[in-house]
Write a sequence for this structure.
């Protein structure tokens, strides 16, 4: 997809990307001649198609890791504990790159029920939330994240 | 006013360049692999994976360096059938993932190695699973590319890719891989299977650049457990007629053997443990015929 400034008859350049926000991305293009900007707003399906191609709008800042599409694309419910998605099924945004990788997780085990409940959280925020829960559990001296721990963390952290 | 064709770049993302990098990575990984062979069939349930696993074992038993990719992203079975699912999960080594090996040294890569357990379905992270028709195929093709490109195969004499049923699967592999040197098309001698297999072979011949093709007739016969006499399971001659019509060779005929199924369930190598059984001899014959076919091309 390319954008053209009709007035200048000039190809527009990528200026900025924002999101994802509930599956939608904002991609802003600007005309290098007149400076006029336009924003492309994707719906969730369009975002997912780009993501499925294994490319990143805005360019690939770093080389792709081995099995990155599998590692980051599988839902948390599918990922094996020791598999390449062991980071917790973290989802990478196709546009702005790594989102959840910024949130380094501990080795604390999760019960299946607790992990399933994380599926309800948008992928872009899941790593951050899981990290927060693990920190709460560690502070409470707990050895495992269960659904009860999730409920307590939720009320304790005002979630 | 300019059109899409007048503008050289996409504004800064270089999506085409990123896709080219993916293709280069795959080509580099495959550069040390002599032959890439697809094991396929348009029809499901004819024994593609059984043929793939035992063909790999027969080749490896003769000293060849063999890799085996489970191309069935949603229904992976090679992890169990080769026994590697019970071994240590694949580990990352440098820029690739090291494949586990079978007792015969066949290097195996499968989605099954990355899933939580044997009953876990492949579910892709998405805002919603509905409407997935638009992107699920892209995900699966990308996963197949990664299973091939991001595995530390090392130098191989042959990489076998076991494809799921459907005549559209080989074109998907052709989109992903820079070359396919041969296709081993598995059938059983039933008219229903042969119809579908015939369409698949015609599609390959008309639309794909696959230089070598051959049929494997699975469940060709059944040996009486009491007297050893081999009787056909279906009216004889059907596979040969299709092969003549399509102008492709029949590489081997695999007799039915319940021990073969049990070995697959237990992840044991049938060819290694039962080398003298008729089906094991047929897999050895298949390995020899495939090598001849490839060397001739």
């Amino acid at each position: 997809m390319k954008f053209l400034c009709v007035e200048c008859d000039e190809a527009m350049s990528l200026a900025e990307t924002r999101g994802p926000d509930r599956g939608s991305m904002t991609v802003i293009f600007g005309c290098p001649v007149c400076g006029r900007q336009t924003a492309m707003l994707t719906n969730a399906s369009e975002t997912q198609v780009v993501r499925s191609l294994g490319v990143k709008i805005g360019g690939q800042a770093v080389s792709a890791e081995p099995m990155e599409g599998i590692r980051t694309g599988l839902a948390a419910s599918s990922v094996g504990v020791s598999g390449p998605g062991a980071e917790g099924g973290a989802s990478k945004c196709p546009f702005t790159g790594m989102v959840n990788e910024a949130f380094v997780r501990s080795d604390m085990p999760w019960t299946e029920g607790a992990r399933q409940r994380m599926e309800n959280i948008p992928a872009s925020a899941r790593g951050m939330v899981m990290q927060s829960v693990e920190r709460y559990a560690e502070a409470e001296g707990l050895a495992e994240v269960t659904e009860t721990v999730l409920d307590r963390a939720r009320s304790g952290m005002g979630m | 006013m300019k059109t899409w064709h007048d503008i050289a770049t996409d504004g800064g993302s270089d999506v085409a360049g990123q896709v080219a990098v993916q293709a280069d990575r795959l080509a580099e990984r495959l550069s040390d692999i002599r032959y890439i062979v697809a094991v396929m069939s348009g029809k499901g349930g004819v024994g593609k994976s059984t043929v793939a696993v035992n063909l790999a074992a027969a080749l490896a038993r003769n000293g060849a360096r063999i890799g085996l990719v489970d191309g069935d992203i949603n229904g992976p079975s090679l992890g169990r059938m080769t026994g590697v699912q019970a071994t240590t999960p694949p580990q990352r080594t440098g820029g690739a993932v090291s494949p586990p090996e079978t007792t015969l040294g066949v290097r195996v890569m499968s989605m099954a190695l990355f899933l939580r357990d044997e009953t876990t379905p492949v579910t892709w992270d998405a805002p919603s699973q509905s409407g997935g028709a638009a992107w699920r195929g892209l995900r699966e093709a990308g996963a197949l590319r990664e299973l091939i490109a991001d595995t530390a195969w090392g130098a191989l004499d042959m990489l076998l890719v076991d494809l799921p049923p459907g005549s559209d699967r080989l074109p998907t592999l052709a989109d992903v891989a820079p070359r396919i040197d041969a296709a081993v098309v598995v059938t059983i001698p039933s008219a229903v299977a042969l119809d579908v297999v015939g369409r698949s072979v015609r599609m390959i011949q008309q639309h794909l650049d696959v230089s070598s093709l051959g049929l494997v007739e699975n469940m060709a016969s059944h040996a009486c457990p009491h007297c050893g006499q081999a009787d056909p399971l279906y009216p004889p001659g059907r596979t040969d007629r299709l092969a003549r019509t399509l102008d492709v060779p029949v590489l081997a005929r695999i007799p039915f053997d319940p021990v073969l199924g049990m070995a697959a369930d237990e992840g044991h190598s049938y060819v290694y443990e039962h080398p003298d059984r008729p089906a094991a001899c047929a897999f050895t014959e298949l390995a020899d015929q495939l090598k001849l076919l490839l060397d001739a091309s």
Q: What stands out?
A: Residues 81-104 of chain A have pLDDT under 50 and may be disordered.
